[in-house]
Amino acid sequence: MSTPYPFTAIVGQDDLRLGLLLNAVSPAVGGVLVRGEKGTAKSTAVRALAALMPEVAVVAGCRFSCDPGSPDPACPDGPHEAGGGVSRPARTVELPVGASEDRLVGALDIERALAEGVKAFEPGLLADAHRGILYVDEVNLLHDHLVDLLLDAAAMGASYVEREGVSVRHAARFLLVGTMNPEEGELRPQLLDRFGLTVEVAASRETDQRVEVVRRRLAYDDDPAAFAAKWAGEEAALRTRIVTARALLPEVRLGDGALRQIAATCAAFEVDGMRADIVMARTATALAAWAGRTDVLAEDVRQAALLALPHRRRRNPFDAPGLDEDRLDDTLEQNSGSDDDDPDPDPDGPGGGGQPPQGDGDGSPETPDGDEPGEAEPEAGEGQHAPAASGGEQAAAGAGEPFRTKTLSVPGLGEGAAGRRSRARTEHGRTTGARRPRGALTKLHLAATVQAAAPHQRARGRSGPGLVVRRDDLRQATREGREGNLVLFVVDASGSMAARQRMSAVKGAVLSLLLDAYQRRDKVGMVTFRGKDAELVLPPTSSVDAAAVRLESLPTGGRTPLSAGLLKAHDVLRVERLRDPSRRPLLVVVTDGRATGGPEPVALAARAARLHEVEGVASVVVDCESGPVRLGLAGELARELGGTAVTLDELRADSIAGLVKDVRETNRRAA
C-alpha cells in the first residue's frame, strides 16, 4: 500500500481543509463538495483525510461493517450477537465515474435465487463505504442512474438491491465527499443539496506559496515514507484534536440566539427547504467543538454560512455560487442575540425576531441597456446577397430573458449516454422486450425466462413445484429510456444579426436552449460565423456555464459566411463521432438564412448543408428573420439540411404554434 500524502503538509487551501476536518469531527454535517480547477490538491486532501479518521469497531467477519455494540438486525451476514468485535481503520472508498450499477450497490445471483432460493449477494461499494468515506472524483460526470442510487442511500442510510421480487437490504451510512471541475459541467441540484458543505479551491497566485507546494511535492515523490515520517508529529497532533473535538461535541450548546441567526440567514438568502438550516446548525456546533468551546458564537454561524449556503443559492446553472459577505454580516448583526454574553437569553428580547434585510445586494442581473427601436437596422431587401449592415465589429449585446423551450429531439432509437432528450435503449426505463444476456445478467425478464425454461422441465427431471432453471434460460430485459445528445449550436454573428434588439432576443433564445440542454444532460458546443470565417468558440463539453459565458461576450458584425459555419460544424461532428460514437448529435443553426461574402455564397451554403443531410444529422434552424418583409431563407436552409425551421416565437413552450418533437421532416421520418 502506497504512503498517502500527509494532510498537514498541504499548503494553503484553508477552506478545503476546514470543510474536511469539520466532517471528521461531525459526520452528521453531511459531507463536502470540493469545486475548483484541476491541479489544486482536491483529491490529495480527500485521500489524506482517511489517515486522520478514528478507527471503527466492526463485527469480525461481517462484510457490511456492522457495529458490534448495535449490529444491524437486517444485515445479510447476520444475525450478529452484540458485543465483541475488532477495530480497523476507517475506509475511503472511491467510486469511479464509469462504475456499473452492480459495482455500486452489489450483485445478486439471479440464477441461484430462482433455481435454489438462495440469496447469494456480493456487496458493492456502498457496503464497503458504510461507516467510512465514499469519495467520488469528478462527481459531476457521474451517470444519472448512479446519482439516483447515491441519493437514495444518502437519504435512507441504507441500500436496497432488488431483482424481480428478490431483495437484499443493508446499512449504508457514509461521509460523502465529491470533487469536481465546474468547467466540465454542473451537478444535478438534487445531489448538490445532499452535500452538507461546499468549498471553492484555486491555485495560489503568491510566488512563495507556489514554490513551497512544488518543494514539498518533489520531496514526497522522491521518498514518500521519509516525507510522511517528517510530518508524523503534526499528523498525530491533528488526529488527537479530532478525537478531542468529537468527545466535546455533545456538550456544545446551540442557543436560541444562534438559531435565530441561522434561520434569518437562510431566509435572507432565500435558500430552498430546511436542510440548509439544519446543516448550518450542525456545522456551527462542529466549529465550536473544533475551537474547544461549548458555546456557539456568531463567528461560528458566519463561517457555517460561508460553507453551507453558496451551493444552495443557485437557481440555474448560470448563477455564480457564493455569498455577499456584507449582506451576511448585516443579517447576523440585525439578528444578533445575547448568547455570547448572557447564559440565559430572553427569547423575546430585542434581536430575537429581526427581519431579514431587504438590501439591494440580491445579485439580480441588470437589464441590458441600449435596446432602443431606433438602433435596429432595417431588413435588407436584395435577397441572399444583401450586403452586411456594418463592416466593423460591434459591441456584444446582452442576452434577453430566457424562457422554457419546446422539446427538440433526435429521431430514431439511440444507445448513447443516459439523459433526458431522445429515445434510446438504456439500462433503465420501460421494458420493451427480452434477449439473451451479454455478460452478467442485470435486469431479468421473468416471463421470457419462464417461457424459455418451461419446455424442458420433463427432460430436466422436474419432480416438485419448483421450476428447474438453467443459465441458458435466463433472459435480459431490454428497456427504452432517454439519452443525452450533443447539441451543437451554429450561431450567426454577422452584421445582418447585429441590431442590438434582435441579437439580444437571439442570445436569449440560445441561452434558453442551453438551459434545456443542462436539464436534459446533454453535451454542448458552439460555432459562430461572421466576417470571412467561422470559429469553434466552445469545443463540445458538459459545461453549459462555459457556453453561456462565450455567448454573453459574442461580438457581431461583418459579412455572413454561412457555408464556413456549416463546414466548421461538419468538422466538429466528424471528430466527436470518433471520440464518442454512441452520442448522437443535434445541430441547431441560429440564423436569418442570409449568405454573403465570397463567390457564390448561396450555392456554397447549400452544398455545406447537404453534407449534414447526407450523414443523417438531425437539424433544426432557428429563424431569426424579423420585420414586415420576410424572405424565408431560413426555411430553404432547413430543407437543404433535411431538418425543420422554427421561428423564435415557435421555440417557446407556451407558443400557440406547434412544433414536432422530432426535428427531421415528417416525410423523411416516415420513409
TrEMBL record:
All copies of domain VWFA, residue ranges: 486-663
Molecular function via GO: ATP binding
Region (Disordered): 314-439
Biased segments, Gly residues type: 349-362
Record key words, sorted: ATP-binding, Nucleotide-binding
Record family assignment: Belongs to the Mg-chelatase subunits D/I family.
Annotated PANTHER family: CHELATASE-RELATED, MG-PROTOPORPHYRIN IX CHELATASE
Protein name, per record: Mg-protoporphyrin IX chelatase
Lineage start: Bacteria, Bacillati, Actinomycetota, Actinomycetes, Kitasatosporales
